[in-house]
Amino acid sequence: MRSPTTILSSTTLFLTFLSQAGTSSATAARAVCVHQRGVEFSELAACGDKGSLQYCFRNSPDYVSWSLLEQCFEKAGCTLEEARIEASFVVKLCDERISEAELRRRGPELLAVARQTTTDADTTTDADTTTTEATDATTTDATTTTDATTTDATTTDATTTDATTTDATTTDATTDTTTTAASTDTATTDTSTTDTTATTGTTTSSTSSLTCSTDSTYTTSSCPTQSTGTASGSTLSCFETAITTSVCASDMVCSDETAVCIQREDSVTGGTLFCVILLAVIFFGGLVVLFGLCCRDRRLDKRLRAQKEAAAIAKASAVSSSVPAVAAAAATTRPQRPVRSVSANSNRSGDPFVDGSGRKTPQ
């Protein structure tokens, strides 16, 4: 038979374990919330550089504490008061969602455990009461002594419960302190890893067979400026931020800023070789046909010139041969004057100044 002290101690230890597990899971869930909603929180922040906040949220460790969030806002350019307000705002937004999820997830389990513990305690109490009544039914003093003993035991159990609760609280505080220190160390490690990655650069691509572009990530240095407070306008410490750009995939040929792409074929295939040979034959065949047409035109031109020259020569020969015949024909057809003969008795002679007697007339 278990005593009430043993039952209460077991229940207290179980509840303490549940509280520690709940705190650890809530801190881890808060880290997930900060990682997923980092861009949203940086946009909602009333102070600080947006890029610095996004970098801090993105590179936060697996356990995000309140102080770590305050450091993020202080490094981004917020004052101490502003950092506390913004950190509390982020914690409130994340913890409200976490608390609702924890209630939905842990509610039935806690109720089942509580019911089982209550049933065990009731059964033990009933057994103790029956035994006490059966043993001390005849003596009132014994019953009084038993009641006093039970009261002392109950007081002792209450004292033990308080001490256990105090120890659990101390353990929780120690756990929170250790978690904060570990979070700071982890943040430093993550930052170093990020710097190494930033130096080398990374390129990621999708597994799709027709991916036009790949996401190329490279880092650059960003130096935010204080936006509020008395130090407004001063330059804060620089930090490395990752920038993602889209570039054409190595196995693609892209156009219109990687919107349209075709598959690149660097190896010569049978179809490619056939197309090249066909295009070469068409090209050289066209050149041969063009050269043949030019030669034919030149031959035709020479032939036409020769014909023209022959016609001109024939015409000239015909003209030159027809001129004497025309002259002879003209001479033949010309009318002739009658010829007078000089008689002996005629006084006329060939000389007009000689008379018929042969003497010349004086002039």
Describe this protein's structure.
- By secondary structure, the chain is mainly alpha-helical.
- The protein folds into three domains: 4-198, no CATH class; 213-263, no CATH class; 276-317.
- It is built from seven helices and five strands; from the N terminus they run H-H-H-H-H-H-E-E-E-E-E-H.
- A three-stranded antiparallel beta sheet has the order 1-2-3. It has a two-stranded antiparallel ribbon with strand order 4-5.
- The longest helix has 63 residues, at 270-332.
- It is rod-shaped.
- The protein starts with a helix and ends in a 31-residue tail after the last helix.
- The relative contact order is 0.08.
What characteristics describe this protein?
single chain, 363 residues, mainly alpha, 3 domains, 3-stranded antiparallel β-sheet, two-stranded antiparallel ribbon, rod-shaped
Based on the structure, what is the oligomeric state of the protein chains? single chain
Q: Encode the helix/strand succession as letters.
A: HHHHHHEEEEEH
Report, as a whole number of angstroms, the end-to-end distance. 208 Å
What is the radius of gyration computed over CA atoms, rounded to a whole number of angstroms? Answer: 62 Å
- Silhouette: rod-shaped
Enumerate how many helices there are, as a single number: 7
Approximate strand percentage: 5-15%
User: Helical percent range?
Assistant: 55-70%
Provide the number of structural domains: 3
Sequence of strands across the biggest β-sheet: 1-2-3
**Mean pLDDT across every amino acid position:** 64
Query: Largest sheet, described in full?
Result: 3 strands, antiparallel
